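Entry:
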Amino acid sequence: MIHGERFFGRLLGGFGEQAPESPGLQWRTDAGIQLVLDPQGRVIDAHGLQRFGLGLATGEGTPRLLLDYLVPGSTQALEGVPADWTGHSLDLDFQGPGLNVLNTRGWVQPQGDHWLLQLLDISDLRRHSQQAGNREQCMQLALSITQQLRQCSAARLPEVIHEALRCVAQQWRVPCVALAVRSDTALGWRLYSAYHAFDAPLLWTSGQTVGEVLDDLDATAPRHINADLERSRSPLLNSLFGNADGLLVPYRDQ
């Protein structure tokens, strides 16, 4: 097995053989993170450029447990002590500054009287996987809504549209969603249906008219509504969104 194959084998969680202990270990500062742990799992040293920003307090005071640096809920792989983790792929999410999270995958091996935990940054892999999953879920939702709309009668259309908006809101995790349509009358745009989560403010109502506030918007691309910008650029649009950030997604049936 060449070096590259061994690298990807570890990245994918395949540990066919234990990496040999090296008394003259050369720290890799250009890739990943290397943490030195005591037998109880406390972090006593750290190496690698990516260790910065994780708040690893090494060399000062009493060493802290590795668990203390991880995002709550991502510590199931660390039951017991380092000796119990050998031979396993460890997916660990470190809490960075603010809300930043570093997703890593690694393995542990003995190093003298201590343990060496070597970690690779898999944030991109995790993000790509999540994006692919989100696309699949959105596609399934769109197909489901399309099928329901084709099968429903005109009398049930408002009910089906409202249910579709509820599904979209839950899928996108947004509190309020509405469908606006352009009428041929002087009233301009009106809200055909509106959905609000149980704890969300009642921004809109079904049948509400909003005039021509949407006429000048680009009908070919979504537009992010920034409350700070719209407050001076388009007060009416800002008022429509309740002085909050939002998103407008245009659609035209060709």
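Strands lie at 33-37, 43-47, 90-95, 101-111, 114-121, 176-182, 189-196, 209-211, 223-225, 246-248.
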